[in-house]
Amino acid sequence: MKDAGKIRLILSDIDGVMTDGKIVYTERCGEIKAFSARDGFGIRLWMKTGGFFGVVTGRSSEVVRLRCNDLGVSILEQGILDKAETVRQITSRLGVSLDETAFIGDDYPDLPALKIVGFPAGVADAAEEVRASSVWVSDVPGGKGAVRQLIETLLKARGEWDRALAFYRGENV
Ligand SMILES: [Mg+2]
Q1: 161 C-alpha vs ligand 1 centroid, how far in Å?
Q2: What average pLDDT score do residues 116-129 get?
């Protein structure tokens, strides 16, 4: 797949990508979101092979901070209105080019970011415009392992999937 093998940085939206998009409110505990353990596995694998992973989300919540903390994801931008500008800032901070960046989204606010990265990606149940603007669309919907599927696709394009799994098993390769 075009340019899939040169991606070094994956940036992901949260609602509708790393979750199914539902935001559950409770009176006492604030927001509840459900994350996929499969995505967590993929993200750990990706970072173990030296890839950068970050989150860019329009909303702002404590549970997202907790999830990122749990996964060891330190690139976390919440409350972002202009996702394209934030993507530019993150890439220049890391010294990664936009061409080497993938962004995965599900809805209209993700479009500006999708349009500037080398590998725009969407989830299976993304809005029509997002799917049309993406070079890759997951088979599974948001919150069901779409990020893990993206990571597997990128690592396989680089010929590093097997090495990544060996890393995860703790083998010295
Ligand atoms: Mg979203």
Answers
A1: 27
A2: 98
